[in-house]
Predict the 3D structure of the following.
Amino acid sequence: MSRSAAVKTNKAASADLLLPNWLSRVVTLVLVVAVLVPVLYMLLMSLTPNQDVALGTISFAALELRNYAQMWSQAPLLSGLAHTFIIAGSSAIISVIVALLAAYPLTRFRFHGRQPFLAALIAVQTVPGTTLLLPLFAVISYIQTALSVHLIGTYWPMIVTYMTFGVPLSTWLLFSYMQTIPRELEEAALVDGCGRLGALRRVVVPLARPAIVVAFVFAFLVGWNDVLFASIFTNTKTQTLAIVIQRFSAGQATASLPLYGELMAAAVVSSLPVVVLYLIFQRHLTTGLSAGSMGGT
Amino acid sequence: MALTRSAQTEAGPTASTAAGPASRPNRMGPGTRFLRRLRDRPLWMLLPATVAIIVIILIPVAMTVWLSLLNVNVSTLRLFLAAPWHGLKNYIDAFTQPSVLGASLGKSILLSFAFSVGTTIVITPIGLFAAFAAHRRFTGRAVVRALYLVPYVLPTFVTGLVFRVMFTEKSGLIDQVLSSLGIISPKTYWLIGPHAFWAMLITEIWATWPFIYLMALAGLQAIPREHYEAAVLDGASYFRKLRHVVIPEIGGVMKLALLLSTLFHFGNFTLAYVMFSSPPPSSVEVLPIATYFNAFSSFDFGVAAAIAVVTMILLIVPAFIYIRATRISNLSV
């Protein structure tokens, strides 16, 4: 290596150094351990027989997969999983469609109310979910009595609520992405007499696919992670995974032999899809977070 | 009719230049013109999002304010918005009478502030140092960066459960380790009584520091390389580099991050709900928990609505700052 090249790499490397090397190593080591301990403890407990977890005697020698087999019969996890997939999936699909429709005119036209609309997208994300739950519950009960229909215990209240909570972030993500798609690409479609809706569907949507996928993932996780609304809007027949696990754990607190091993196995199963999704999309995470991480809860 | 008129008022010169293909000579009747406007300048596309936000968020917010002034409990919920007028009595009750969990509104406000501001104060240095250390190149950096995301992306109901088991007296890891080190007396109850607040705070710190880290790292990556290199050429010390190059450049992002982080902790309902037995101890009765249990445990809907309104009032100033910050950086198209 020539001398100037060595100086250059040296300079480039030290430009990235914001802390002395030893301090960076200590910080990284401490944080990695702090992150890993609870995560590994969760995995370890999920592989330990219930009675050993309850006694606090966990040994690496007695690990077994039995919790993962038994938990399904202890709590309706499978139906919870199915309900969550249906509710979170359909609310995310509708959310992305609504957001696509909203993001398109926001990037292509100037009109009165454009800036307030964008500001409102941010503002509504600061409203805590607990302040909306009560009036939504009141409205739903009112409609139930007035029209004598059942809504609590159906998918609809949750689909509509999660869909709405997904819209601001999805719109914001798609809005930022669509600004990078040149308008000229749509012109051919417009000349062909497609109309704006046709141009959106045939030109913009295929090009915006990466942002659509990210928006879908974020909207899906709104429903997957929610406990607040699901705790009121579900009944025993429509409990989502989060609620099944929460009720399962509440039932164990007073049990003589709490099934914490199986509970941890259920926790692992319900976090795995989320962690995998986030790791795949980790590059987009910062955009999503800074655009508003408020969600409902 | 009203729709047609509003469509025509929009057809100003600025509008037609922006719409491009719409600016052609127009010899059609008003009906066709309206259809054509809908086609070429489809602002109707904003309707679904607008309706959803109004119906699910804005109207409920207005209803919460109204409900907080009515005498709504389980027997008058049927009357709903026509329930008897209660004036400010719900607010007075919320402040003067302890809830079903034992805390009054004043205590809940203090707990919420202590929880959200306390968490932010602790996670800020952790997140910053994590970002400084992860900014340099080293073997295994990709693995470390992915690992750092895990606490943040785990569903809150999972984090709450894991820490609930870890904080269990006698059998839990934290109790075992701390008591064997002699820091706490064995069989300390972390999940009930006054310690519960600290258990919840520690859990929130573990789960949310990566947010500050992510925002700080994004800020660091946005600094032009020349700025770092200039500092190196000047022979600036680490401290001077942080003080004079890094902190000024990531200051804007960090302010937004701290604000968002505080707002986020303020609204966290799920952690306290899943981490403790139901009903949770009064030491974790933060505002979302107070709202929820007043509404759905003691069915004092009016009092719950009053607590919700107080929560929103407390959030108005930070929310306003947040909107302004976003407006400056993003809205200029």
Summary: Confidence is low (pLDDT under 50) at residues 291-297 of chain A.
